[in-house]
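User: Predict the structure for this protein chain, please.
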Amino acid sequence: MDRRKINLAFIRLEHFLEQCEKLKRPNPPSLPTPEMAKNIRDELVFLLDNVQEITCDDVPSVLEVLTNARKNDIPGIHKYSDKALEEFLIARSNFIRRADINSFNGFDTPPTVKPTSIKPKEISNVTEWRQKDERERMETRLNNNPNITDLSDMNRPTKVAEKFNSLYDNQWTDAFEDLRKLYKHEINGQERAILEMAIILKKAFEYTEETAEKQTRKIAMSMKELMISPTGDSFINNELASQHKHVDIDPLCEVRFTRYAKQCIKENAELSLPVLHKNFEWLLRRERIRDILTIPSVKSYSQKCLQIAWFMNVQDPPMSLLWPVDVKRGDITTTFRFFTRNGTILQHEVWPALLLTSDGPMMTKGVAQFK
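Assistant: Here is the predicted structure, written as structure tokens:
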């Protein structure tokens, strides 16, 4: 490892801390992104490994700034940024002061490498910080990556996208034709039919989204309770119940329980459908569109909406629907194809675009009526 790399790490870290310090000023620069904070954290780890003059004890505020930057915690960055920059400049000056200045400028001599005999306190601080950092990385890895496809899963995102397209081409079209006939004497009968079917899809997605979140919490909680008390005896009396409440749970265990709960729900999603269908039908009958549910094609459409929306929301992370009102005007024609009239100005929504995740790539385009 040469001193050029050390010098570049110092430069990048200093620039980052200066940007954080400037966030307090009027017209501040843009907030450092979590990805930027992660990269700078790696630079700091490199310096801690390779520069004898820098330890975790020397730069505690720098560690706080990096941690808060990764969380987008602006007040936390403000609290430590001044002190962090001061600590950094002192640590860097100590390194340069002990170095041969001429060699340092020429990047010729090897860097000062930390000895193997490190003070116990330093080992503790470095270990604690790195364990915390590794825990954050592991939490990220434990969450399923939607870009990794299990081809044996018949309800994987690509299959759900196919079913979603089929829903629009078949059940939606059948219901639309029947509703258009029902409203044929109304001036805006076609638009009314389209918007009423959009209401059904939105309600289905909201209902299954809420249900999936509740089910995940309940299953994760049940697993945690059973792991804390394998025999179930902790609830027999108040003393044991009190002990149960004060058990210290590693946050990583909480992440695992949530992940296992999501996996269980996804792999057994079909088991929930009968009750979900019944509850959703009852929910729709409380809406103003309840009268059209007696039409067979509309009822079939609503049932299919519920099923596919459920499969969307049991993904980890869940898939997402994007409606025209949520898209910038300049981007709408790239996200939605036209229904019967082309144009650049939205008249009304027809069918949403489907995203892999809330901020992920688009799986299928939506449909909108333009003018």
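The chain has a mean pLDDT of 80.
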